[in-house]
Every structure is written in structure tokens, then in C-alpha cells.
Design goal:
Blueprint lengths: L6 H8 L7 H19 L12 H13 L8 E4 L2 E4 L9 H15 L5 E2 L9 E2 L1
Antiparallel strand pairs: 1-2, 3-4
Helix pairs in contact: 1-3, 2-3
Organism: Ligilactobacillus salivarius NIAS840
InterPro entries: Phage_gp6-like_head-tail, Viral_HT_Connector_Assembly
Protein name: Putative prophage protein
């Protein structure tokens, strides 16, 4: 599966200039892409919708920033408080649902089957 975002785009967002963490960043991109494909209902053969690339990039940034704080719902120390969402995709659920509605509407176009009883082929779809 090809990445839907470029490693360099993620490194730019994170202000990283070395290759030290490229392996980790590629893994984050791969897992985030798989998670979004699942949420969109895309099987392995379906092309990833480019209009949703921004979600992968934004969630990758969140995922990277959460490293070493996995499982922590909130953190407080000397007046500083940090709280993580339970799902990195929460802010994008409306966009995901909108895309699914539009995509399902296109797939649900009516079609008809014509059967020719004299043909050796089973049927023709239109």
C-alpha cells in the first residue's frame, strides 16, 4: 500500500530535519492510513480518496506528539495540564461521515440487468 501522504510533509509539520525518526514516522503514516481506510470502509483494492489526505497528516502529527504518553487521558504538573482525546480521529468524524454519504450515494445509482434467453452469456448490466 502506498502512503497517502509524503514523509517530508509530516517532517515539515513536526519541524524535523534529520532522518533519525524516518522509520517511526513511516510506521505512523502506515498505521494511520490503515485506520482511516477502515473507518471509510475501503477494502484493499479501493483507491484512497485524495480529498481526505489532510486527515492522515493531521492524525499522524497528533500520534507523533502523543508518543511516550500512550494510554494517558490527562496529565497535570505545576499548573500545566494536558488531556488527550480517546480517538485521534474524533475531530474528523463529521468529514468522514460526509465522505461516506457522498461515496455511498454514488455507488447506489440504480442499474438494470437485461437477460437475453438466446445468449450464451448470463446477463448484461447497465
Amino acid at each position: 500500500m502506498d502512503s497517502v501522504i509524503e514523509l517530508q510533509d509530516l517532517k515539515t509539520m513536526l519541524q524535523l530535519n534529520t532522518t533519525d525518526q524516518d522509520g517511526l514516522l513511516n510506521l505512523i503514516i502506515k498505521n494511520t492510513t490503515k485506520a482511516l481506510r477502515f473507518k471509510l470502509g475501503l477494502n484493499a483494492g479501493k483507491e484512497f480518496p485524495q480529498e481526505l489526505d489532510y486527515i492522515v497528516l493531521e492524525v499522524c502529527v497528533r500520534r507523533y506528539n502523543r508518543l511516550k504518553n500512550e494510554g494517558m487521558a490527562s496529565y497535570s504538573q505545576e499548573g500545566e495540564s494536558i488531556t488527550f482525546k480517546s480517538d485521534d480521529f474524533d475531530d474528523f468524524l463529521a468529514d468522514i461521515e460526509d465522505w461516506k454519504k457522498l461515496n455511498n450515494a454514488e455507488q447506489a445509482k440504480p442499474h438494470a440487468k437485461f437477460i437475453n434467453p438466446f445468449s450464451k452469456e448470463d446477463c448484461h448490466e447497465i
